[in-house]
Amino acid sequence: MTVTASEIDLEYERRWKAMSPAEKVSRSAAMFAWTRQQMARRLRNAAPSLSDEEVKWHVAMKLYEREPEVVKLIKEYLASVSR
Questions:
Q1: Using H for helix, E for strand and C for coil, what is the string for the chain?
Q2: b/e string for 32-68 if b means 16 or more Cβ within 10 A?
Q3: pTM of the model
Q4: CB 27 within 8 A of CB 19
Q5: Phi, psi of 51 (to 5 degrees)
Q6: How far apart are CA 16 and CA 31, in angstroms?
């Protein structure tokens, strides 16, 4: 049996529409947490000397990279974080 991308998309949409608003929020939060974990893992592999606090803020900086004001605040905070 071959499953096409459109069949997968349709099934995803069907399941998404069947969820309650609370389930959608929960699913979105879980996906966001997974994304942050993956970003942190890659960052730790690339820069193993970073502290947990630095990793957390570098991940945040990447997530907010299109918001210059937020990036500026994160960079200011990172300058004060000790290793």
A1: CCCCHHHHHHHHHHHHHHCCHHHHHHHHHHHHHHHHHHHHHHHHHHCCCCCHHHHHHHHHHHHCCCCHHHHHHHHHHHHHCCC
A2: eeeebeebbeebeeeeeebeeebbbbbbbbeeeeeee
A3: 0.75
A4: yes
A5: -75, 165
A6: 14
Per-residue model confidence as pLDDT tens for the chain (83 residues): 677 779 999 999 999 999 999 999 999 999 999 999 999 999 999 999 999 999 999 999 999 999 999 999 999 999 998 65
Domain boundaries, the chain: 5-80
The phi-psi region of residue 51 (left if phi > 0; otherwise alpha if psi is between -120 and 50; otherwise beta) is beta
